[in-house]
Specification:
single chain; mainly alpha; about 0% strand
């Protein structure tokens, strides 16, 4: 199905800018994550990017809901999808969804189609339900596999 680019010249510019911005953002994150090594603990990769260690495990003696998301995304960028899923399924889902969206945006740019129209027809209800369930299940999974002192 060919989706026409914006009805007006301004709409076409906004449509193209949205596509270029998403592709550029995805390329930026792929480069950044490609330059760090996934942390062997399954979490903490963000510390290689200059961020502070997560205080949640220290305060609550359990992982935070997003523990391992950066590590999983890094595994995915390093072409280790099974390790990414084993590390943090929700992080793998988010990173994969971002890469899929960037790929769709690039395809729309190449084909001269509307990325905004494609995004407008996405099944947001289903994506939200999947994300919520997967987010909570992943947090439970990470919590169960969290190293105990």
């Amino acid at each position: 199905m060919r989706l026409p680019v914006g009805e007006s010249p301004a709409g076409a510019i906004v449509d193209r800018l949205a596509s270029v911005l998403l592709v550029g953002l995805a390329a930026f994150f792929v480069v950044i994550l490609g330059r760090v090594a996934p942390d062997g603990r399954g979490h903490g990769t963000h510390e290689q990017l200059g961020m502070s260690p997560c205080s949640w495990p220290t305060l609550y003696e359990m992982p935070c809901p997003t523990c391992g998301v950066t590590t999983a995304a890094t595994h995915l960028v390093h072409l280790e999808p099974l390790q990414a899923i084993a590390t943090q399924p929700f992080g793998t889902f988010l990173a994969g969804l971002g890469l899929y969206a960037a790929g769709a945006a690039l395809l729309c740019l190449v084909r001269g189609e509307s990325f905004v129209a494609r995004v407008a027809t996405a099944p947001y209800g289903l994506l939200l339900r999947v994300a919520l369930v997967l987010g909570f299940v992943s947090w439970g999974y990470v919590w169960m596999t969290w190293p105990r002192p």
